[in-house]
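If you are new to this repository, start here. Below is one unmodified record pulled from the training split, so you can see the exact layout before writing a loader.
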Amino acid sequence: QVQLVESGGGLVQPGGSLRLSCLASGSGLSFDAMGWYRQAPGKQRELVADISSGGITNYADSVKGRFTISRVNAKNTVYLEMNSLKREDTAVYYCNARWTIIQYWGQGTQVPVSS
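And here is the target side for that same chain:
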């Protein structure tokens, strides 16, 4: 049973920074890719960033230059460093991990960006 647990979310003011963490536990799987998605109220869930086991990264255009994704493969852990946060970044952020064609999801962590 794979469980993805996000941490690090919380209220942050515009221009601030936040670091999200996600730990995949409960199995011995090595994930091909891990990443972060987000869903703002009234909007569809969208990819924020992901990273392959080899370290290849992919970012949404809206966060390029502001967010950085990284992972520690041996720990099945993925991080998202968010800088220069904007109000439009407000969303529930979900951790995602993929093993072959199987995808796993975390419960989500709220990131309200407000002054």
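Two things worth knowing about this chain: DSSP finds no helices and ten strands in the chain. The chain has a mean pLDDT of 95.
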